[in-house]
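Teaching note: in complex prediction, the entire set of molecules is handled at once rather than each chain in isolation. The prompt given to students was simply: 'Predict the structure of this complex.' The entities are:
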Amino acid sequence: MKPETTLFWDVDTQRDFVLPDGRLYAPGAEKIVATLGAITALARRLNIRIAGDVDRHFPGDPELTRNGGPYPDHCMNATPGQRKIEQTAWVNAVDIENRPLSDAELDAAIAHRGDLVIEKQHVDVLRGNCNAPRLIPKLLRNCRDLVIYGVCTDVCVDFVVRATLGQGPKLHVVTDAIAALDAERGKACLESWRAASVELLTFAQLKAALTGTEAGATDSHESFFTIRDDSQESPYFISAEGAELFALSSGLARFLYDDLIAHPHSLAVFV
Ligand SMILES: [Zn+2]
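The expected output is the structure of the full assembly:
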């Protein structure tokens, strides 16, 4: 798997799905947060583009219980629950809203140097955004490997797998970076994906495939940290070497840096 021909697809890693107090929480999803952060950091380090979809709901959306649909209010527009978790925050993202865009606008979004976000109002990305059926084949044109992760396994992740299957790239789903709304349905999805020749792999196996290292081997450049500056909208990521410089220049005590190194992927520094 080569970073330059790989695309990551982050499915709905929004607070309402991932956090225990979220409106449509996938049980156990908080356990995958560290891995979601590690996947995102790996993409930043290897310059792998992150695309993905997010729910953005409005009061009239048919999938909401209040309109006769199956789901309670969740990811309502501009609410805290609609926001991504910090570990997977978009960086320099272009938003594809659910309103008709021209081919030129879609091409410009694909050429954009940053994350690409498909907003949707339906569990199926192909139905939830009117641009998705034209955008996805364009997005995957030069992609050999598509890596999918996020929530919920048995709903939106499954729809992304189905929307991208047979479009060209080999599909990979990161099994320790997904969480199901319903455990049994989640297991059934894994079986159907495997039967469709989707590769199921762990984050360690993904990292090994992309970096050419053995799964489980330590990588001296592996430690990445999230730095959040409240004056900036998005957090940014720095390497271990950068973290050391940051820790020293910002007056953080040396022991804090050593503590960071001992817990890669799991700590954020707030400034
Ligand atoms: Zn929804």
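Point out the following to students. The longest helix spans residues 33-46. Confidence is low (pLDDT under 50) at residues 231-236.
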